[in-house]
Structure formats: C-alpha cells, structure tokens
Specification:
about 210 residues; alpha+beta; Ribosomal Protein S4 Delta 41, Chain A, domain 1; Structural Genomics Hypothetical 15.5 Kd Protein In mrcA-pckA Intergenic Region, Chain A; 2 domains; five-stranded antiparallel beta sheet; 11 helices; 5 strands; about 45% helix
C-alpha cells in the first residue's frame, strides 16, 4: 500500500482532529479544519450527520493513529502483533513502541517541526544513535540511547534557527544535553497520549 500523499488538512478533516498540530495554520481560524469542520468529499457537511457504528469508531481511531505517526497498514498491524506478545497492557505497549521510533524521537526533541520532516532527517542520514549514523525511521530507540544530529547539520545556522523557532519542550522521557544532542532517560510516558488516541479501540479492531 502506498503512503497517503493527500493534502495534510484533508486528512485532518477526515479524522476530525489536527493530525499536524505544528503546522502554521493548525488550530487557528485560518485552518481548513476550523473553516470546514465537515468531512472532505462530495457529500460535504452531510457526513457529520451519520452516526458511526462501533466498528466504524474503531476503524477511524486506527486510521487517525496511523496518520499521526505516518505509518502504513502492514507496519502498524505488526506493532499490534508485537504488543500482544509482550507482557503488559497491549495498548500501552503499542503506544510505547510507536513513541520509541527514531523519527518520532527526533520530532519529540524538537529537531524537526513535523514528523514527516523528522523522517526526512533520518532518511538523509542526519541523525546518529549512540554515535553511529542511523537512517531507518522505524528504528527502535532504547532507554539510555544518545541521539545526536551530525556535526555538518548541527553547525548549520539554519538548523540552529529552526530549533529555536520550533521551541518544543522535549517529552518527559527525553533529556536534551545540548542543542543537537539528547538521551532517552526513561520509557515513553503514554499517559498523555491516551487522551489523544483511544488505543483501546485500536486493540479491539485488530482483536476481532
């Protein structure tokens, strides 16, 4: 299955939430999500009047999570399969795996404005994990790992200005040691994420 390349705000309108909250217009009156609160497509506002079945709500929650993290169906399903084989709450384990992806860690650290931008940084070999260049966005970043931006990029004034402009406070489980270096100091805290993603419905969808 190909990656969803449809307009970002159309995806947000389909799910009813800002999937890319770091974009300049997100959450403002200028955002298409604010101006067009109904689903995209030829049926327009009528889509709001249809009541979703339990299956429909599970499906939409899965699609929303996939779009937030920018993951295709097969890979997303594999996270579920790994989670059910791991001891602990399946939903929490699954969210922890998603948060531990290298592209998400780069995003959470504020090295990139959006997750797609973070994925691009990784793909281009601009990130090191424990001193070694890493180019796989889905790479699992374990507790204790050090993440850094390669010197050539870190010393570029454009990167420095971009990080300052993003001004994102790293997640509680990440500790910035410098402007371009950080360490994973704990397991991802998924408490806040549960308010954004109803992972219980995702687990129910795959366990049918």
């Amino acid at each position: 299955m190909a990656r969803d390349l449809s307009p970002k705000y159309k995806r947000s309108r389909r799910e009813g939430v800002d999937l890319h909250p770091d974009l300049d217009k997100a959450g403002t009156a200028k955002s298409p999500l604010s101006r067009k609160s109904y689903h995209p497509g030829i049926h327009g506002p009528r889509g709001l009047r249809s009541k979703l079945s339990n299956y429909g709500m599970q499906l939409r929650e899965k699609q929303k999570a996939k779009r937030i993290y920018g993951i295709l169906e097969r890979q997303f399903r594999n996270y579920y399969k790994k989670a059910i084989r791991t001891q602990g709450d399946t939903g929490a384990v699954m969210l922890g795996m998603l948060e531990s992806r290298l592209d998400n860690v780069v995003y959470r650290l504020g090295f990139a404005k959006t997750r797609p931008a973070a994925r691009q940084m990784v793909n281009h070999g601009h990130i090191r994990v424990n001193g070694k260049k890493a180019s796989i966005p889905s790479m699992f970043v374990p507790m204790g790992a050090t993440i850094s931006v390669i010197d050539r990029v870190a010393k570029n004034p454009r990167f420095t200005e971009s990080v300052k402009a993003i001004n994102r406070t790293p997640a509680s489980w990440l500790a910035r040691k410098a402007e371009s270096e950080a360490t994973v100091v704990a397991a991802p805290d998924v408490t806040e994420l549960r308010r954004e993603i109803d992972v219980r419905r995702i687990v129910e969808f795959y366990s049918r």
